[in-house]
Amino acid sequence: MAQNTNAGSNQQPESDLPAKLAQPAWRNYQYFLERLDEAIQLQLQAVAQQATHTAAGQEDWQRQRSRLQAFATLAERHRTSEAQQESRQEQKTQDEFAARRNDYDQAP
Length: 108
Prior knowledge:
The protein is mainly α. The protein is built from two helices and no strands.
């Protein structure tokens, strides 16, 4: 059983297709091609819209990431400030203790 393929030499060009089809079949074929073109255009629009949404989402993500990094920097600065303040307070307490001890040692 021989199969007819697109690569076969017996195939006629697509331009001869109307001669092979009856008028209603030809109209159906044209309608089918128009619907395919419409579907392709709709899909291209959907792809473009999704690309726009993706770009907007990426920009929003970058803004949020920058904001988060700014808050992290502020939090780190606050922790550093708190640690320095605690260190100063501890040093002050030790200095006061040393001064009292010195005063106590020098008492008659």
